[in-house]
Design brief:
This protein has 353 residues and is of the alpha+beta class. It is built from eleven helices and nine strands. The chain is 39% helix and 18% strand.
């Protein structure tokens, strides 16, 4: 409540008003520096005895009609000054109240998704053996996805990799039609086209197939493929490379073995199995009591593939392999349903934090 004497106006001309309001403005600044915020607010803006109310009523009451408008304008400006001083004081008080020695509220740090972690782990193992990382488009042409990998048109092996195709491609030649890649093998072709041997690459990426989805299969999944091309590359090099990689991935006690298989782009081709990491090869439900788990496909690069990229097939040889990231992650983390990796369920993902 204001108890200060209300100043008197000797005149209502412009000069007198300017002098009077300058004095009030100085009074506002002085009281803002001396009074606590709430006391300052009540002193100037109190509803009944606020100094601004008392001064404005006294001056407007005796003012001639033609002076009331200029007076009202100046009182509004003075009120704005008071409110600005209050806002400044509030900010200062809040700032002074902060104790910077207290620990702040820390945001929870994210972690790598288990599939990302597994993919990078696989890639790092091959990088340590001198492999470079390669990448390519997920939307491919029929030529790079099938034909150049020794899948001729109408070949039965194409049925096993049925995929999604881009609409309205019928007018294009078959080899130029666009589709979602079914494997990362097209990157092998693109890399060989632009790079002369020797060549060692590992290719992580997402692929698409028309799969019947269940606990172990998805239409969209991730692969890591590898390619090695040089002179005098043999199947023994392939076996030694993959055996070392599996030991680095699952432990030094794991064993590997190879069985004949078929892939259009490799000859001879093989399926590689590892000794069951759950029972140590003794036989359990996970390995169907065989002691072994099939993990990936591999083989020596078919000379016909070298013909598509211009490599001298009488001079160079090579091997290729490919594995599913989700399958390995399921084994590493004991996950029984592949769909959990893509459910975005935080309760599932937080287990890997």
């Amino acid at each position: 409540m204001s108890t200060e004497q209300i100043p008197q106006l000797a005149s209502y001309d412009e000069a007198a008003l300017a002098k009077a309001f300058a004095a009030l403005a100085a009074e506002v600044s002085a009281s803002a520096a001396q009074m606590p915020t709430e006391e300052f607010r009540l002193h100037w803006l109190g509803r009944k005895q606020g100094r601004l109310k008392l001064v404005s009523e006294a001056w407007l009451k005796t003012a001639p009609p033609d002076a009331r408008k200029p007076l009202g304008i100046r009182f509004n400006e003075l009120k704005q000054q008071i409110e600005a001083a209050l806002a400044t004081e509030t900010t200062i008080e809040v700032g002074d109240a902060l104790d910077i020695t207290l620990p702040g509220t820390r945001r929870t740090l994210g972690i790598e998704h288990p599939l990302t972690k597994t993919s990078r782990q696989i890639v790092s193992i091959f990088q340590a053996m001198g492999y470079s990382v390669a990448a390519g488009p997920e939307v491919e042409t029929d030529y790079y996805n099938f034909e150049s990998l020794n899948f001729p048109p109408n070949h039965p092996a194409r049925d096993t990799q049925d995929t999604l195709v881009v609409a309205a491609q019928e007018s294009k030649p078959l080899r130029e039609r666009l589709l979602m890649r079914t494997h990362t093998s097209p990157v092998q072709i693109r890399t060989m086209e632009s790079t002369a041997p020797p060549l060692r690459i590992v290719i992580p990426g997402k692929v698409y197939r028309n799969e019947a989805e269940d606990a172990t299969h998805l239409a969209t999944f991730q692969q890591v493929e590898g390619l090695c091309v040089d002179t005098n590359i043999t199947f023994s090099d392939l076996k030694g490379t993959l055996d070392h990689a599996m030991k680095a991935l699952f432990g030094s006690s794991v064993k590997t073995r190879f069985f004949p298989s078929f892939f259009p782009f490799t000859e001879p081709s093989a399926d590689m199995q590892i000794s069951c990491i759950f029972c140590g090869g003794k036989g359990c439900r996970k390995c169907k009591h065989s002691g072994w788990i099939e993990l990936l496909g591999c083989g020596m690069v078919d000379p016909a593939v070298f013909g598509f990229v211009g490599y001298d097939k009488t001079k160079y040889s090579g091997f290729a392999f490919g594995m599913g990231v989700e399958r390995i992650a399921m084994m590493q983390y004991g996950v029984s349903d592949i769909g959990n990796f893509y459910s975005n369920d935080m309760r599932f993902l937080e287990q890997f934090a």
